Amino acid sequence: MFPGHLHLLPQTPQLHFLFTVIRNVETPRTDFVFYSERIMRLILEAALCMIPVKPFNVITPTGAVYKGVRPDDRGIIGVSIMRAGESMERVLREMCRGVRIGKILVQRDEASAEKVPDARFSYTKVPKDVASRRVLLLDPMCATGGSVIKATEILINEYGVNEENIIFLNAISAPAGLRKYLGRFPKVQIVTAAIDDDLDENMHILPGLGDFGDRYFGTIED
């Protein structure tokens, strides 16, 4: 169904439970944050396993040599697609101490049928050396793929990032969005925790979980 650059987390009973909690409309914000961050940790661990390593030996307390490894010298930078992508920043900082994080705002044209990105309303702030790093692109939801496509175009065309150095980290995707994104950027790696059924007439993921950013940051309107 999808090329080999798409990596779906193992669909374990524990992951199924975590999604049951955060998809539930009755789940309070505190639980939504806690359990969604558990999913984010699994996604990040899977993504970090894709980072190349090099040999690095250490001496253990017994005096023996342990033939270990450490990440290569390229290093990583996180880039969150605002606003929902910012929800993944805390977990990234906890797992990768000292990591630098950039931001890309891609405003959508809500009047368009597919809510396509509107280039008139965008903002980008990333570290100057982003082109020489591996980029973890953060956005928990991928519906039509429009926002992540625009963000990836910005990184490649305006900042010189190599396509193969981008890993897109995502919690829930729609098949249409994945096909569109991978069709445009076949060398990008994607780590996702769930591939849902479809999109509704409003381009919302089904069954989905609603607006991730609103539920995470507590900005749901009554």
Automatic annotation (TrEMBL):
Family: Belongs to the UPRTase family.
Enzyme Commission code(s) on record: 2.4.2.9
Keyword tags: Allosteric enzyme, Glycosyltransferase, GTP-binding, Nucleotide-binding, Transferase
A molecular function GO annotation: uracil phosphoribosyltransferase activity
Family matches, as SUPFAM superfamilies: PRTase-like
Protein name per the record: uracil phosphoribosyltransferase
Enzyme class: transferase
Biological classification of the source: Eukaryota, Discoba, Euglenozoa, Kinetoplastea, Metakinetoplastina
Pfam families (UniProt xref): UPRTase
Biological process terms in GO annotation: pyrimidine-containing compound salvage
